[in-house]
Amino acid sequence: MGKNKKRKVPVDLDQELELSFTGFTNSGEGVGRVEGFAVFVPYTIPGDRGRVRIKEVKKNFARGELVDLLEEGPGRIEPVCPVYGYCGGCQLQHVDYKRQLELKTQLVKDAITRIGGFPADLVREIKGAAKIWNYRNRGQFPLAHNGSNQIGFFKAGSHQLVPIENCFLQHEKINQLLEVARSYLSRLKGNNLKHLVFKVSPETEKTMAVFVTQNENFPEGEEFALFLREQVPDLASIVQNINPKPYGPVLGRKSRVIWGEESLEDKMNDLEFSVSAESFTQVNPEQTKILYKEALEAAGLTGKETVIDAYCGIGTITLLLARQAKMVYGIEFIPEAIEDARENAEKNRIGNVDFVVGKVEEVLPRMAAKEIRTEVIVVDPPRKGCEPEVLQAMAEMGPERIVYVSCNPATLARDLKLLAGQGYEPKYVQPVDMFPQTHHVETVVLMSKIEKQA
What we know:
Blueprint: E1 16-24, E2 29-34, E3 37-42, E4 49-57, E5 61-71, H1 97-115, E6 138-144, E7 150-154, E8 161-163, H2 172-184, E9 193-200, E10 207-213, H3 220-231, E11 235-242, E12 254-260, E13 263-268, E14 271-276, H4 285-299, E15 306-310, H5 316-322, E16 327-332, H6 335-347, E17 353-357, H7 360-369, E18 376-379, H8 388-397, E19 401-406, H9 409-420, E20 424-432, E21 442-449
Parallel strand pairs: 3-5, 10-11, 15-16, 15-18, 16-17, 18-19
Antiparallel strand pairs: 1-2, 1-4, 2-3, 4-5, 6-7, 6-9, 7-8, 9-10, 11-12, 13-14, 19-21, 20-21
Helix pairs in contact: 1-9, 2-3, 7-8
């Protein structure tokens, strides 16, 4: 038999062609096809037809840019932000909110069926947001030192700064801080200041400003801090964070307080939490309440269970679980987050918790080897999903229920399929829209152990 001929790619670089869009990717791009060959184009949605210029060609797909929109698909609207399409923060401002929810639900269904092999009817109706603008309680703004010290966001897929005056997704208090800070930047010399990070406590409306620098030598920080204090009455904390790494996470592991408190005080379901400069918390507080409510209901606690909360962060879910469980173990690899978690447990007088510092893929197998019994395991991993060692350890521990909180439908479906091979079955999949105007969607899944037949 002769060798199979390689399939010829039907598009060329810089070629212009008309496409009708019929699909949608989990990165927020519309999908058109040329002789069955997929072309991904940002800022398009199913139902659109447009003229496209091919910007990248790969073996199995191509990417293009929209040159001219010829027909509008259902739900297309005019975006409100003047830098939409340049700034990389939003992907769906050109879509009305009802359609956004439909697209996100379909993303979850596609992943669950195509990757996981599960039926689509497992996916429940998405929990949409009441507030679709100004919902973010944290903003991270890079700086460009080009003579005028501009501040903004990076263009999608690059480190090219797009200057902004405000952000339609950020809390009003953060936009106030951004405006005041921008008016001062021309006074700064050198390029030590890399990012400004602003946080707000929705409960108290107090704010924090974090100066992220390449090194500790930032004498201008004191004067900059004084300026902010004079202009922003609700400012409660100003912190310098040192991060010498040119790429990767915005925040480094070392901080010092320039002025004010070490952390902001916040609440979640009557529990009090301290949020430090380095703490990771969900950025949409109202939708976070819905997300955690779903996770708690899926856990189905009666007060008798031992629970593990993997990737626990500052212990928000851990402490909520602890109020309904016998004992909860929280696992997190960032030491500063565990310090916050322990402080938060003490603050709320919750003693039936134990926080462990370490990578989940190392700690959980050790717990499994010690034959620690647990009825419920809750996991909330990063976008890459759970490591194989984590899935294997969970299966070995054999909890009655696994509650999987995910921010990536593709890795979620992959992990659910692996857990299904270890004796678990998904009972339902609940999407929650934490990030309106973006392609991101959170999901809570209840996995139950399959009872062995006698």
